[in-house]
Design a protein that fits this description.
This is Two component transcriptional regulator, LuxR family. It comes from Flavobacterium phragmitis. Keywords: DNA-binding, Phosphoprotein. By secondary structure, the protein is α/β, with parallel strands linked by helices. It has 2 domains: about 120 residues, Rossmann fold (3-Layer(aba) Sandwich); about 80 residues, Arc Repressor Mutant, subunit A. Helix content is about 50%, strand content about 15%. The strands form 2 sheets. A 6-stranded parallel beta sheet has the order 2-1-3-4-5-6, sandwiched between helices. Strands 7-8 form a two-stranded antiparallel sheet. β3, α3 and β4 form a beta-alpha-beta unit.
């Protein structure tokens, strides 16, 4: 059991908790160690269970998922949080990402993605369901508005790196970026690798998250 992934479930519907528990327990190294029906008890419950991963509903009674995430962030909990929600609103997704959530699933796809999500966030990666990922990219494509103040004030990236990360977040290909910025495809790829290394990011969705968290793009 030492190598097991300890999972805590927080949702105000016992039926959902039971269903997810049964599904998660089909994985040999998953251990569902507890559950919470009330948002006010989640942090203490997770601490008591020594859970590695928390699957958290946004709409919890008395204390919602956003407030619970704030508590986890303030107390620097090492537990990794996956948001499970009925909502796919980009503003909510952006807020929970800023508060430290490592994954986001909608309830209508949880059964298909939850095992993959737990494995990913436990390993330090971020996980977004296909529908959420597509919504992020499509919103950027439809409304590619830059937050000029945030771009100017960014202390880490150079202006060129900011251009690259924004275009990557908008899902432009390397060739399209090279044509738009009048640089070679090789230079684009070099910038991409440098960004990954500088920001300690391993995936394109990680670059999107950075753009969101640092307000380089206004949804």
């Amino acid at each position: 059991m030492d190598s097991s992934i300890k999972i805590h479930l927080a949702d105000d519907h016992q039926v959902l908790i039971d269903g997810l528990s049964n599904l998660l327990r089909t994985v040999s190294n998953f251990d569902v160690v507890g559950s919470s029906l009330d948002g006010t008890t989640v942090y203490d419950d997770v601490l008591s269970d020594e859970a590695d991963v928390l699957i958290l509903d946004i709409s919890m009674p008395k204390k919602d998922g956003i407030e619970t995430l704030k508590e986890f962030k303030e107390k620097q909990s090492p537990c990794k949080v996956i948001i499970l929600s009925s909502y796919d609103d980009l503003k909510i997704i952006k807020e929970v990402m800023k508060l430290g959530a490592k994954g986001y699933l909608t309830k209508n796809c949880a059964g298909e993605n939850i095992i993959e999500a737990v494995e990913a966030v436990y390993q330090g990666q971020e996980y977004f369901s296909d529908a959420i990922r597509e919504k992020i990219f499509n919103t950027f494509k439809d409304n590619p508005k830059l937050n000029q103040n945030a771009v100017i004030e960014n202390p880490i990236l150079s202006p060129r790196e900011i251009e690259i990360i924004i275009l990557i977040a908008l899902e432009y290909s390397g060739k399209e970026i090279s044509e738009k910025l009048f640089i070679s495809s090789h230079t684009v790829e070099t910038h991409r690798k440098n960004l990954m290394k500088k920001l300690n990011i391993k995936s394109t969705i990680g670059l999107v998250k950075y753009a969101l968290k640092n307000n380089l793009i206004n949804p």
